[in-house]
Amino acid sequence: MPQGPSMCHCGQCRKQSGGVWSSAYVPESDLQIIGPVNWFASSDTAKRGSCPRCGSFLFWKANDENTISFALGAIDGPTGLTLDKHIFVSDKGDYYDIADGVPQKD
Question: Where does the CENP-V/GFA domain lie (predicted)?
Fold first, then answer.
């Protein structure tokens, strides 16, 4: 079962997604990826995975964790999840407000 549904407002996620990036995570061993993924070392501590055909940003993986985050927007149909938190809100764009009452973390 996916955990930690969140919306990331960090500069990298905003630039890659064009807004905010919604994701949840699962143990890496529980995620089956069908098809190719382009992995990019976005920092010394993590990598990001995208579709080589359309360029969609689909995955985020910390180098020292056994979990992988996946884009909620890439799921077909309802997810059955409820947002837990907003993260990196100190980096959010100045063109929107977060007003949904969900906890926010700098």
Answer: 1-97
